[in-house]
## 1
Amino acid sequence: MDAMTDAIPDLEARVRRVVSRWGHDATSLVQVLREVQEDCGQLPPQAFGLIARYLRIPYSRVRGVASFYSFLAVEPRGEYRVLFSDNITDRMAGSERLMEAMCHRLWVEPGKVSEDGLVSVGRTSCTGMCDQGPALLANGRAVPALDEARIGQLCELILARTPLAEWPAELFAVQDNVRRADILLGHGLAPGDAIRAALQRGSRGWSEHAANERSWREAYVGAAQGPIATLEEIKRSNLRGRGGAGFTTGIKWEACRHATGLARYVVCNADEGEPGTFKDRVLLASHADLVFDGMTVAAYAIGAGQGFLYLRGEYRHLLEHLEAVLERRRAANLLGNGICGQAGFDFDIRIHVGAGSYVCGEESALIESLEGKRGVPRNRPPYPVTNGYRQQPTIVNNVETLCAAALIAVHGGDWYRALGTLKSSGSKILSVAGDVARPGLYEYPFGVTVRQVLEDCGAMATQAVQISGPSGMCIDATEFDRRIAFEDLPTAGAFTVFDASRDMFEVARNYAHFFAHESCGFCTPCRVGTSMLVSAMDKIHAGNGTQHELREMNRLNRVLLMSAHCGLGHTACNPILDTLKRFRPAYERKLRSLDFTPAFDLDGALDRARQMTGRDDAAAHLESQP
Amino acid sequence: MSERPSFLLDGVEVPFEPGQTVMQAALAADRYIPHLCYHPEFTPHGSCKVCTAKVNGRLMATCTTPAESATEVESNTEELNELRRTLVQMLFAEGNHFCPSCEKSGNCGLQALGYDLGVMTAGFRHLFPDRPVDASHPQILLDFNRCILCELCVRAAREVDGKHVFSLAGRGLDKHLIVNAESGRLVDTDVAVTDKAVEVCPVGVIIRKRVGFATPLGERRYDGTPISAQALADAPRPLERHHD
């Protein structure tokens, strides 16, 4: 403890600096914690008290919030904290072997801090680098494309205590891997085009009069024309949310526009946490202006003055770039006051960076996190469109949805609707990864068959495809003529391919661990149920499973579906049920024929004693069980 | 007199005041819906899910669902009681509950609910978490082994005592109760033994020292009256009282 205080002598000044940068505002608690940790390289125990004092909130709230997010280290995690991305695609690409090699080289046990306090090595949920995995996060910075050489290089840098800022830049290089572009990825628009087009819709010789009025939105009938015309185009396009749920965007925007409140907010959900998806990473890296154009168009349509981009912590490497784009847009009058010369059109965007929590992708949990709280989904109703950020009307839209909205602002709703299927207009970006020759982004008009995608990405001997990540569905080869569309296979974009060599039981087990790790713990069924699913799957994996486990998982699924608080719990059983239905032999060959086998393993229980005594001879083992 | 709005609960008409939840209206009308984290004196938050019922066919936590006219609520069905039994079993498996040696036995909401719902076995493998107790306070013991994370103490301290004593930390299965002190010890908080937060714990986490067995086993709160009847006896009633 004392050694740690000595290590950061000016802790108080550092905390004060961060807190004042965030305006002493308790709703910025997550950001304050994250920045203090970045600044100090850790969160020293004394920091919690200081943050509580400067933000004037209870100490226990600071602890409670910090311990919710897995990237905030409430316990010492070493000078270097290495977290291996643990998506199934990382595992398929050899992440376990690489992690073992690193632990061996650094002389550290997984999940623990090395004895000299230098480094810890652990696992984290999918970091969104599935097209260039295996990947890891080193002190929050993404390092993709791992192989033995890279692991060796990282170990040398860590052992030499080289500061991350001095690590070779190529370690952090992330590729876009756009393999097929359609209207969105090939948009060809300049920054601000969408905003100017939206303003144009309202002009028709009226808009200049709105200039000196109280509010461009309310004061003058003519001034409302542009926003309403834009909203009409969004509605006409029949655009549906790209985050997975598929709610009609125009209806969401209209409900927010009509809701009464003191202020309205636009939130861009860039908490792309579904294992296997990485499209938003590319949109933010290479099309940030389109994303911000979409947010600004949304602000124009609903009358919002403030926007937030909630960037998942795994994409921390994009923050400086995104801040620079925002700065450039302010200078170009695409943000700030009187946007594009439209008096009263005032809007700005702030970036909040997440800190390792999948459930924050759920819109009400995301808002809680924006407000500096634990990311626990709210009770609904009321919904965010009426009671969102600070209880004010708020729209939360996915990155890709906002990009599509920008396109619609330029080209109109009919143009957009001409593409895709009856109930799914426009295009969809798929994040293709797994057993394919060319992983990356593939944008198609809605309605494309799974078979077409598999052909384009060079998939061979495909056994199964996980559509939309673990919360989506797993399909087998008999279903490859099904179509990507809300009518058939709705998806948030993940498209993970498994060839015939893969054990689908292990795929489901990986996903079960994911849900248990990410459950917020608010409700009983999800908190306990997801962990019990894990223990049942682990028991089968260990060769001790029986029909009893299969029955128990069915029972847990019923409880989760009936009573879980949010979508995480409702979908936590999907991977197991889908694979059980389609790949039952993968489970059954692991089962013992007995009806019940205790998970307790008598010989295994002696493991610890053997470790302590350094013995592993035959006499230190019980006779093998019958 | 204008007609009061009402909904149907298991086929029986339940009147409600605008703003009431299904649970509040049901209890006021002498109708019981099993629950654990709900308490009439504090803001409902809907985490235990024991009160889940079908509201117009949709499964909802009745403690947070606003009552609405002309809705049909199904609660006392075998399907839902089976769900409740499973949830109670999950809570038993999650913590370390040893009823025979627990001084809360007989006064415990979890135990009483288990009996009332007919929970006969643990149903799941016990997780046996490692949860140290906090005996730092001279008058109050915290035995986290029995915590069911209902947050009643968190709410009672905040809403009634006007203090910050308890909070939740961690997430998922690691979610746990903490106290508002840098030392992490109860003695360093401003808790008082007379606080509502100390009295409200439905299980045996927050225990007043030296009064343990003042009421002998057999004469305790739920020894004579099942929790379903006790909850109705405790429920706040409108002044007009029921007429039967």
Note: The radius of gyration of chain B is 19 Å.
## 2
Amino acid sequence: MARTYGRFLYTIAYRLTGDPDDAEDLVQETLLRVRRGLRTYRPGSMEGWLSRIVTNAFLDDVRRRRRRPVESLGDEPEGAFGASPGADEAMMAEALPSDVEQALLRVPEEFRVAVVLCDVVGLSYEQISEALEIPLGTVRSRIHRGRALLREALS
Amino acid sequence: MSGVTPPGDRSPWERPAGEATTGHLGDRLSSLLDNELPADEVATARRHLKDCETCAGELAEIERTRQLLRGLEAPKPPESFVPGLLRRHRRVTLLVVAASVIAGSGAALVFALSPPRQSVTPPVNRFERIHATSTPSPDPITEMAPVGVPTGTSP
């Protein structure tokens, strides 16, 4: 079980951060929050609850870093994905997993989180709405835009 | 930070829901793909797709993007990751397991997480020696349940 949830959290953390060390740190932070917040757990979807905690921890970290502009977010240089792609469809067809992973990291965090919860974790829109504490309409919009932005980053 | 351009009016399919001005499906395309579109909108959306090449093309692109993301393999955590988690957060993982059992997900797996228990062999011979040499209590009740001996049960 711990193995399962450890890997579950690691997968989300890795998709959100794109870095093994950052992913480990995020899982550690998540487990600390789990410990503090266990009383708030209500019987329901454990995956949904853990997803909520890990994404909140991630977004809190993003906001903290934004408030400290001196420290870079460690972004890759512009154009890292190829500045002159061919036709969209050819790019999509040839996209390697690593291309997709890198492109995902170029999607702004708020949209990335929604897409990861939907397409990586497999949560329903309603579960995502609860996890991110945003209205269902915003979930729809963020997932769609997130995918659009991912496609743009791939092309 | 770098990244793709924040969502804007780049193309119809990146625009928010409603799409009242263009008549296109917008983020309803993702909802349709995810089976998250309200039932009463599905038929309308499908009718629109038959007549609108723009939306049909966008639907195909979103689907491809979604497939790329869903096709990613789960990242493999470092070898030491899960054992390290168990060591550092044993209490938390136990609590999470307990909570998940309450939630009805994976009762059997609680045993998989339980720390290995040492087998206990009661020193029967020693007890026999002690009791063989001890002075029998005049009070048979006290002898059966001596004061101060934890019984492990409480009402």
Note: Chain B has eight helices and no strands.
